[in-house]
Amino acid sequence: GGAEMPLSGLRSFMIRESEFLKLQRRSPGEATVIIRADAEAAMGRVKEVIQICQESKFETFALRAEEKVD
User: What is the 3-state secondary structure (H, E, C) of the chain?
Assistant: First the structure.
């Protein structure tokens, strides 16, 4: 957790995370997925991330906006 993840690799990553939780006798629905995005990120991309996570049975999300400071 906590690593930057390109959207192209997210689906397979979330499937692995879901399977890992199941091996631990936990449900993906019990976990909170923290989504960090730049404050300028398109909302459509954030929705896409949530949809991919939901396909792997994750249900709870915390959104964090990050602003780059020069």
Answer: CCCCCCHHHHHHHHHHHHHHHHHCCCCHHHCEEEEEEECCCCHHHHHHHHHHHHHCCCCEEEEEEECCCC
Strands 32-38 and 60-66: parallel
Task: Count Cβ atoms within 10 A of the Cβ of residue 13 and give its class: 0-12 exposed, 13-18 middle, 19 or more buried.
Answer: middle
> What CA–CA distance (Å, rounded) separates 59 from 67?
26
Q: What is the pLDDT of residues 2-46, one digit of tens each?
A: 677 788 999 999 999 999 999 999 999 999 999 988 888 888 999
pTM as predicted: 0.81
